[in-house]
Design goal:
alpha+beta
């Protein structure tokens, strides 16, 4: 609607079929409940996909037991037995052949089937880089207790991470990205309109 006093456009919303609660809202207020509903639907779909993946491709050995392997702590010379977390999909070959400090032993689950690359450039370099990939990690002998539990590391772009996220921390990052994507959609609409107006003036 257009404000009759100022002539400015207004975004109006109502939850009442009889329009009894008409009120002016911002684009963010309008997008927030839509984003929440979409998030709930995505969460259900993600859970179904995760359950399916776990059923058809368990990340364990033939008996259904997480993999166990041995190495040596380079600092102390003591033997170490490591049982991988379920889902670990790295080979650990460097740990087996060239033992390092116990604190550096890392199990990680990489999402190998859902990767995205964007040309995140630096100066003239616009080589496509992986963005927003999430790894589940655990470092069973790390001095920080938080790292000894499975946690998430979000790779914002190649070799740039938001690290040491517990489940609540990862949820907060997801919420921030969803808000940014919603804002980017608004900016996309603005860009289309601005480009059309700009090109029209150039013509």
């Amino acid at each position: 609607m257009t404000d009759s006093d100022t002539g400015q456009p207004m975004l109006i919303a109502s939850s009442d079929p009889q329009l009894g609660d008409l009120q002016e809202v911002t684009s963010t207020q309008q997008l927030a409940p839509m984003a929440a509903a979409a998030h709930a639907e995505i969460s259900r779909a993600v859970q179904l996909a995760a359950d399916h993946q776990a059923a058809i491709k368990p990340c364990t050995d033939a008996t259904g037991t997480p993999r166990t392997w041995s190495t040596t702590d380079r600092d102390t010379g003591q033997p170490l037995n490591v049982t991988c977390m379920v889902g670990c999909n790295i080979t650990h070959e460097p740990d087996l052949h060239t033992p390092g400090p116990a604190a550096e032993i890392l199990c990680a689950s990489y999402d190998q089937e859902n990767t995205t690359e964007l040309p995140v450039g630096c100066g003239a370099d616009d080589t496509p880089s992986p963005v927003l990939s999430t790894q589940i990690q655990v470092q069973p002998f790390h001095p920080d207790p938080a790292r000894r539990l499975p946690h998430a590391a979000v790779q914002v772009m190649e070799d740039h991470y938001i690290e040491d996220l517990d489940p609540d921390g990862l949820a907060a990052v997801i919420d921030h990205f969803e808000q940014r994507v919603a804002a980017m959609r608004v900016r996309h609409t603005e860009l289309v309109r601005t480009r059309a107006e700009y090109l029209g003036r150039q013509a």
